[in-house]
UniProtKB/TrEMBL annotation:
GO biological process terms on file: DNA repair; DNA replication; thiamine biosynthetic process
EC number: 3.6.1.55
Protein name: 8-oxo-dGTP diphosphatase
Native species: Ferrigenium kumadai
Pfam families registered for this protein in UniProt: NUDIX_4, TMP-TENI
Reactions catalysed: 8-oxo-GTP + H2O = 8-oxo-GMP + diphosphate + H(+); 8-oxo-dGTP + H2O = 8-oxo-dGMP + diphosphate + H(+)
Single annotated GO MF: metal ion binding
Cofactor(s) needed for function: Mg(2+)
Length: 312
């Protein structure tokens, strides 16, 4: 049986500084008429996905792309075709989007999408857009529990919205108490909390999800019962496994040399890009990085940064 040809498509997540993004309604003369989607179109022969993105947004919206970061790639099979959607986050452009093809536009927020129906392939993209650029990993063992909680509250007041509790040196009772306090503090500020490695304890303390270790990725046959599920990955095989398991996002590390593992091998940005390229789930860059590396991470296909010491 001949394998169906995959249609390459470039899709744009036009993002304004407030986090809102643009959706367009498909016109009446196209298949799936009336459905909402991210702007974009087919990659023509000889084009790169980025070139197609720039051309499509010029033709469809009348804007000129200034800054576009490679983001996610999702393959979706519709009854009429299988498409590979190459998503870019477009953060800067010139001109005001206006319909060149008679379509309707609407600026939306990830947690409050008010238009329907949305094309089926885009549902995971809307969920991924809920994730902030910074993922902070706890460091109570090094700075002390009370000092860590003080720094956590300051970070939450400054906009931190995603936290992982990862404390390998605490007893389970100590970890339970810390995780409960972190969850209460984070939830009061509208932030999400994931607990490293322990699904049962994550549920017990009211965390929003679990961060799976690389070892757990190999062992698990199905996604844990958690609202949010992330995975710690170090190579292509582990990232593919995280995707297959249905994880919402992944950490890929170490990108650079780290204080905790001096002299250990690290990926570097080139290898990070090669592994993250084509991922269907957001990938955070971790290891030896600072807040100043955010734009570099975006340029290399990362959703954002995961920081340990530098987060606090």
């Amino acid at each position: 049986m001949q394998q169906a040809k995959v249609v390459e498509v470039s899709a744009a997540v036009l993002q304004r500084p407030d986090g809102s993004f643009l959706l367009a309604q498909r016109p009446s003369d196209k298949i799936w008429a009336g459905y909402w989607e991210f702007p974009g179109g087919k990659v023509e022969p000889g084009e790169t996905a980025h070139h197609a993105l720039v051309r499509e947004l010029r033709e469809e919206l009348g804007i000129e792309v200034k800054t576009a970061y490679p983001w996610l790639t999702r393959v979706f099979t519709y009854p009429h075709a299988t498409v590979r959607l190459n998503f870019f986050r477009v953060t800067a452009w010139s001109g005001e989007p206006h319909p060149h093809e008679g379509q309707q536009f609407s600026w939306q927020h990830p947690t409050e999408v008010s238009v329907a129906p949305v094309l089926p392939a885009n549902a995971p993209i809307l969920r991924a857009l809920e994730l902030p650029s910074l993922y902070a990993i706890s460091n109570a063992a090094e700075v002390g529990v009370e000092e860590f909680l003080r720094r956590l509250e300051a970070a939450l007041l400054n906009g931190l919205r995603l936290v992982q509790v990862r404390e390998k040196n605490l007893s389970r009772n100590e970890l339970r108490e810390l995780a409960q306090r972190v969850a209460a503090l984070a939830h009061a500020h509208g932030a999400k909390v994931l607990l490293n490695g322990d699904v049962a304890l994550a549920q017990e303390v009211g965390a929003d999800g679990v961060q799976l270790t690389a070892a757990q990725l190999v062992e698990l046959r199905e996604r844990p019962d958690a609202e949010w599920c992330a995975a710690s990955c170090h190579n292509m095989e582990e990232l593919r496994r995280a995707e297959a398991l249905g994880c919402d996002f992944a950490l890929l590390s170490p990108v650079m040399p780290t204080k905790s593992h001096p002299g250990a091998p690290h990926l570097g940005w080139e290898k990070f890009t090669a592994i993250a390229a084509g991922s269907s789930i957001p990938v955070y860059a971790l290891g030896g990085l600072t807040h100043d590396d955010m734009q570099t991470a975006w340029q290399h296909g990362a959703h954002g940064l995961a920081l340990l010491r530098q987060a606090w």
